[in-house]
Amino acid sequence: MLLHSSKYAVKALVYLVANASEEKKLLVKDIAEATEVPQAFLSKLFQQLAAKNLISSTKGRHGGFYLTDAQLQHSVLDIIIELEGKDRLQECALNLENCDAQNPCAIHELIVEEKSALRERFKNITLAHLKA
Q1: Domain 4-87+126-130 falls in which CATH fold?
Q2: Whole-angstrom Cα distance, residue 67 to residue 14?
């Protein structure tokens, strides 16, 4: 249901939340190694998130990635939508363009409640909640 980009990003953000701060920034290579996410891919994901101010980064000798208190209030759904370009949890599970409540696909009614519940859970989980 989710793209690899979202899965990788959330996995890496769990690590970032638990191990980084404004005083202790983390390099992409260290996050990638710790989470077994491909470094080049993670670098692109984190650059995209930083460009939208969903995470912070600084360059230079003591540079790296971290989260501010305000960024910790973003939801996992915010991250998913940013990386995937749309809210996949509101789309048809079979990827049919004309599937909706008025014109449901064969499985629409069987999973609509679960999809809505999952979307709501992702919306209510903030990055701060990812801290172990």
Answers
A1: Arc Repressor Mutant, subunit A (1.10.10)
A2: 11
